[in-house]
Amino acid sequence: MLDTIRKRFGLLGRNISYSFSKGYFTDKFNNNKLFEGCTYDNFDIPEITAFPEIIKNTPELKGMNVTIPYKEVVIPYLDKLSKIATEIGAVNTIKFTKKGKLKGYNTDYYGFMKSLEPLLQLHHKKALILGTGGASKGVAYALKELGILYTFVSREAKEGIIDYDRINATTFDNYQIIINSTPVGTSPNSDAFPLIPYEYFTDKHIAYDLIYNPAETQFLKKAAAKGAQTKNGQDMLVFQAEKAWRIWNK
């Protein structure tokens, strides 16, 4: 019998009925006889404290993805982290080892890096990351790997973080890549957008939104209206999902 029989995978998160991962992996399994017997389910829990029950009640689990809001708070429940996940401080992939241990990885940074790289030109030297949650940490790591300087933006200024009120024309002169790593603008709240001065976008800018539903957020629409190159999170998700699949099966 095939070694992939009766393998179960899933997504850990809250309010994840919209999830990309379930549809993506279900299609992957259905379209390849090698993956017969593999399933992918959403594990939608109200608090991270319910995570141990999932592990206890689903012994056939081989791997999980992790999404908002658990990318950081899941870490204490894991036995081990990869070196990169340790450095990033956020996990979006969990491998169940043959010894029954849980090891955390981060494939977000890889997905983001692979999807951003083709857009980069010589003048793209600095990036603003809107948001400071778990997703933003993978973005920051990827930018560091690409040699791009970055600054975080949050509602409150802290050390190394500016607030939204500080963003002005000079900011846009200095930062050529603007990345939305917040959930603002996600369907069904697709009329929402980060509060930045969109009038300063130019054709020298990249506007990148980690959101993929809707395909064009208000953030991207407003940036595109000023000539900016835009990119949503769809390709990032595909790249990170395939990287997770390789980790689960190595």
UniProtKB/TrEMBL annotation:
Claim: Disulfide bond is one of the keywords in the record: no
Keywords: Amino-acid biosynthesis, Aromatic amino acid biosynthesis, Oxidoreductase
Domain Shikimate dehydrogenase substrate binding N-terminal stretches: 11-94
InterPro entries linked: Aminoacid_DH-like_N_sf, NAD(P)-bd_dom_sf, Shikimate_DH-bd_N, Shikimate_DH_fam
Pathways involved: Metabolic intermediate biosynthesis; chorismate biosynthesis; chorismate from D-erythrose 4-phosphate and phosphoenolpyruvate: step 4/7
GO terms of biological process kind: aromatic amino acid family biosynthetic process; chorismate biosynthetic process; shikimate metabolic process
SUPFAM superfamilies assigned: Aminoacid dehydrogenase-like, N-terminal domain, NAD(P)-binding Rossmann-fold domains
Gene Ontology CC entries for this record: cytosol
GO MF annotations, alphabetized: NADP binding; shikimate 3-dehydrogenase (NADP+) activity
TM region(s), chain numbering: none
Top-level taxonomic group: Bacteria
Name of the protein described by the UniProt record: Shikimate dehydrogenase
Taxon lineage: Bacteria, Pseudomonadati, Bacteroidota, Flavobacteriia, Flavobacteriales
